Amino acid sequence: MSLLRRWFDPIRSRLFYQTPSRQEELPIEKGLTIYLRLDDVYSYLIAQQLPKLNEILTDELKPLKIVISDTSDEPPNNMTTQEWQHYCLKDAKILAKQHRFGYDDQPELPSPQALQQATTILKNTPLREDDFLYLLEDVFHMLWQQQYGKIKTLYAMSQGRQQPQEFSERLFTHAPLGESYFEFGEKKYHAVDDLLRLTRRLKQQKLLTDNPIFLPNHIEWREHAINDAEDLADIHALHPELDLYIALEDPISWLLLAYIQEELVGYYNIDLNVYPLSYHGRDEFDWALATRLSKRTQVAFTPFCRPNEQAVQNIAQLFYSTAPEERVQTIYDILKAVWTQGRDLSYPPHVKTLQTQLGIKLDTELSIPSILEHNDAQCVSKHQPNFPVLELRIDGKTYTFNSLYRVWMIESIFNNVLDQKYKQL
Fold first, then answer.
1. DSSP code for 29
2. SS3 category, 182
3. Which of 41, 175, 287, 291 shows the greatest Cβ crowding within 10 Å of its Cβ?
4. Strand, coil or helix: what is 209?
């Protein structure tokens, strides 16, 4: 690693963390825009919230701008199109159940003909603002609940009596779109995952006329969904296991591991297993995002020295040289040194010092590249679009999810397991 990175990463990261990176106010000149795709299931979920959101927007942000794309982007994380579609349908079902959105128990993608007809309906309608948003929600319901007869009827009406409309707040485009998102003040907010963050921002800037309540079952960081002693004992008795696949150079892996280790493992009696992955180039990350997440999760962060490929190998060597029952604490201590003490673990003296502090005797017979490749293969088999990947096993069932956006699922799953058990009594 270059001397510049070793010396300046800790200084830069400390200054960046101490200097407020969040703008007090975002510009409102361009208003609020939502980007949608009719065949995107996350667009379907967020469309159900748009009328309520528009209702409480101040006049400065009205009308809510709608951009509808007819072109999907490439799937993330080298997933196939089929894998990505399957993941989205399953993930959206979880979101819908958690936050009480309308959703089909057996979802399937809308047919190409229905999508074309729906696009014509929305292009030709003279309805605007609230009326258009209600129509948009209805059209999404028809598409995703396979109510093709209704779509066909509306299509015939729009073909016979109307022509394509030109409204400044409504745009149809061929620009590729992966998932639905909002754009406000030149910043992007995931349509469902960042809805709470967006509405907090709008409320802070006094751009809402009422309190936003869109995600009633949102679980806040460090606030537990289960507090009853008997319920906790029931979860403990089920001995939940959690596998965590992490990219060692990714700060999100540290934030997630630290949060789970500090807040959930002891509280719920979780047996945690950690599987380091090979280097994936995730040391080029969004510093502002990582800083914001660390403050939200209350996990220590900075000063850090970003691990490179050699550092990943060295970290894995230390990790696998430790007894299996000590590895979770070991990886926690190693990553804490990297992300809160600025240790450069591509630099032999730093590695040696940490090895001595943790009392680790290196096992030089280990083939670390082979072990990491095996972990990579296991992780790929989970068919997840992002890191870290989590797999929770409890009560004979396995649940797989990913990223810091889905940590709340751990407690949500525990809640659902208890509900099912109590129903059987």
1. T
2. strand
3. 41
4. coil
